[in-house]
């Protein structure tokens, strides 16, 4: 769950905007399925754009095999 309370309005506005499709990468998976994902550097660039450099952090939650 996103905790919107306490975030500056500029941040919530940016988080509400749709992601630029040009930032999304795609790969083929099993059974011909296509998966959309953000490359690591793209995710970091977007976090820096939205929250400011050093204004965010990350943690590994779970691994999907």
Give a quick precis of the structure.
This protein has 65 residues and is α+β, with helices and mostly antiparallel strands. It is 31% helix and 12% strand.
Characterization of the model:
The chain has 65 residues and is of the alpha+beta class. It has a domain at 9-51. It is 31% helix and 12% strand. It is built from two helices and two strands, in the order αββα. The chain has helices at 9-16, 40-51; strands at residues 25-28, 34-37. Strands 1-2 form a two-stranded antiparallel sheet. A hairpin with a 5-residue loop joins strand 1 and strand 2. It is elongated. The relative contact order is 0.12. The model has no long low-confidence stretch (mean pLDDT 89).
What key phrases describe this protein's structure?
two-stranded antiparallel ribbon; 31% helix; alpha+beta; 65 residues
Write the layout of secondary structure elements.
Elements: H1 9-16, E1 25-28, E2 34-37, H2 40-51
Antiparallel strand pairs: 1-2
User: Helix segment count?
Assistant: 2
Rg, Å, rounded: 14 Å
- Helical amount among residues, as a percent range? 25-40%
Order of helices and strands: HEEH
Can you tell me the residue ranges where pLDDT is under 50 for at least 5 consecutive residues?
A: none
Molecular shape: elongated
Number of β-strand runs: 2
**Class by helix and strand content?**
alpha+beta
Average pLDDT reading: 89
Q: Which band does the percent of strand residues land in?
A: 5-15%
* First and last CA, distance: 23 Å
